[in-house]
Specification:
This protein is α+β, with helices and mostly antiparallel strands and about 280 residues long. It contains 9 helices and 12 strands. It binds coenzyme A. Coenzyme A binds next to α1, β6, α4 and α5.
């Protein structure tokens, strides 16, 4: 980023532009003016085509590629897309090969994070996150790209509370627990395309973001929460349904520990935490 070849971008229709970006969370990670792209401008259609290409490649194998009308009606109209883009002419060949790329494009997206405001004040939904890292060999990856894309979007839009939807056993959960203490809203979600999906809410807190990179333990988590005695198995729908029933029965809220997720394999059972003193 210091060379200016990679910058954050904001793909937003004019009327949805954030009025005072980056004023809620004190953070000096993104001192750059983002590249702006407008989904309503015919002359900028190519940027959308590049986003579609990246997104479809990242999510196609899971059967979750975003249909164009969903992207437009449900993402771009109410919310916006953020991420990092690279000057197309500067893009290394290993990355070019997996993107929709031409030397005469100006900027090419390397990642995308779609975020949509909800009817609850201060609460948004993280609708989509992907990074070119998932499509290229280890040697060419830009470490932290997916994490920083979400961080940038949350910071930029002054997001207080962020809900999201992710599949159990997927690598993204390791990222999502590092944006603020994460509460499980649903442990099993048959309304979704994939029933073994969890819905969460994070209270966005940049104090824990750095720990994603430093791998320090978040002491504030253990000061506030304790193991509930229950575990959830990311590989077992029976376990997820049992926890979902307990949440519906009022036994929650349950939380996941970022430190535990970073130490465990994606397939291992996870401890469910609860607020200290919330039982008995
Ligand atoms: C999930 C995704 C956004 C992560 O972005 P990324 O740029 O690859 O990840 P980052 O560089 O920001 O973070 C790296 C960390 O992510 C986790 N991670 C990323 N890919 C992983 C994988 N395949 N397996 C296990 N962990 C993985 C690890 O924790 C890794 O850190 P560590 O191994 O050093 O502990 C990206 O892999 C992606 O686009 N996946 C396909 C689409 C998808 O599943 N999106 C999530 C929907 S909720």
């Amino acid at each position: 980023m210091q060379t200016g070849d990679i910058l954050p971008y904001v793909y937003v229709r004019g009327e949805n532009r954030i009025q005072q970006p980056g004023t809620r969370h004190r953070l000096d990670w993104f001192p750059y003016e983002p590249v702006f792209k407008d989904p309503l401008d015919l002359d900028q259609l190519e940027f959308a085509e590049q986003i579609y290409h990246l997104e479809n490649n990242a999510f196609g194998p899971a059967g979750l590629a975003i249909p164009r009308w969903v992207f437009y009606d449900c993402a771009v109209m109410p919310g916006f897309v953020a991420g990092f883009a690279m000057k197309s002419a500067k893009m290394p060949s290993a990355i070019r090969q997996v993107l929709r790329w031409k030397a005469d494009f100006d900027w090419s997206p390397l990642s995308l994070f779609i975020i949509i405001p909800t009817m609850k004040k201060g609460e948004w939904v993280a609708h989509n996150l992907c990074a070119v890292n998932s499509l290229i060999g280890e040697d060419h990856r830009l470490y932290g790209l997916g994490f920083l894309s979400k961080a940038f979007g949350l910071w930029y839009a002054n997001v207080e509370s962020c809900c999201g939807i992710t599949q159990w056993g997927g690598p993204a959960l390791k990222l999502h627990t590092h944006f603020g203490h994460l509460q499980i809203l649903t442990a099993y979600t048959p309304v979704h395309t994939h029933a073994q999906t969890m819905t969460y809410r994070s209270q966005v807190d940049p104090k824990v973001w750095e720990k994603f990179f430093t791998r320090e333990r978040d002491d504030s988590f253990l000061q506030k929460y304790e193991p509930s005695g229950a575990m959830i198995d990311p590989m077992s729908s029976t376990s997820q349904i049992a926890i979902q029933r307990r949440i519906q029965g009022g036994e929650g809220p349950f939380y996941l520990s970022a430190a535990e997720l970073s130490e465990k394999k994606l397939t291992e059972p996870l401890t469910l935490y609860r607020l200290k003193g919330s039982y008995g």
